[in-house]
Amino acid sequence: MKATARLVAELDSAGRTVLRELRSMAPLTLFPRRRSTPDALVHLVNSATSPLGGDELRLIVRVGAGARLTLSGVAATLALPGPRGEASSSIVEVSVEDGGWFSYLPEPTVVTARARHVAELRVSLAGDAAFRAREVLVLGREGEAPGRLTSTQHVVRDGRAVLRQTLDIGDPALGASLAYLAGRRVLATEILLLEEKPVEPAGGEWWSVSPLTGGGALVTALADNTVDAERMLTLA
């Protein structure tokens, strides 16, 4: 299955964020929510079993100058194996113009046994655009070993790199080591680029805050379940 969805948000003359384009393609289905506030909220729903091995999914988001948009998930995503062992892929491409604000909050992704999935987040920010994104990865369903996941996050501001990170999860050799995720089943990260002021590094037993170039931070947490992982992200 190949699918591309597109979402464009702009600021109108009354100072409200309006959705100039909202194009879904199963399994990437976009549902806007009516709000009394000037910002916009859209839910992303998987309207079919996906990603399945061999699927190629692409989501394109454009946020205009001064517009404010939140895109949130409503249910966990299951990365499933294909019939012939092929990999699936999902690409999220985001651009936010000067003064825009975008928050991307999908629900957790569960990497099921034998699945092979490649996920990419590509973000381009202009000027003082603000951005927030959360990723929660669950390594297998209860009682099973995870499949293979490669997750890449690439963020630039005015053409300069802010974050370039790749996580490779599910390698059996690494998984056997206590140094590899410390045996935890949930890995959560959050990119926070909401202000340009510097952020001090910080950390606890299973979480850390890493400053990013030009302000903002990358928050990382390890836990045995998604509730604890998201709680630590909020605490950090």
Percent in strands: over 45%
User: Helix count?
Assistant: 2
Q: Overall 3D geometry? A: globular
Q: Tell me the number of strands.
A: 18
Terminal-residue CA separation: 38 Å
Explain the overall architecture.
It is a single chain. The chain contains two helices and 18 strands. With 236 residues, it is mainly beta. Strands 3, 4, 6, 7, 9, 10, 12, 15, 16, 17 and 18 form an eleven-stranded mixed sheet that branches. The protein has a seven-stranded mixed sheet with strand order 2-1-5-8-11-13-14, with no helix packed on it. Strand 3 and strand 4 form a beta hairpin. The longest helix has 10 residues. It is globular. The mean pLDDT is 91.
Task: Write the SSE topology.
Elements (H helix, E strand, L loop, with lengths): L1 E10 L5 E7 L4 E6 L6 E7 L9 E8 L4 E6 L3 E3 L8 E9 L4 E5 L3 E3 L4 E10 L4 E9 L9 E10 L2 E10 L2 H4 L10 E8 L8 E2 L3 E5 L5 E7 L2 H10 L1
Parallel strand pairs: 1-5, 4-6, 5-8, 6-9, 7-10, 8-11, 9-12, 10-12, 11-13
Antiparallel strand pairs: 1-2, 3-4, 12-15, 13-14, 15-18, 16-17, 17-18
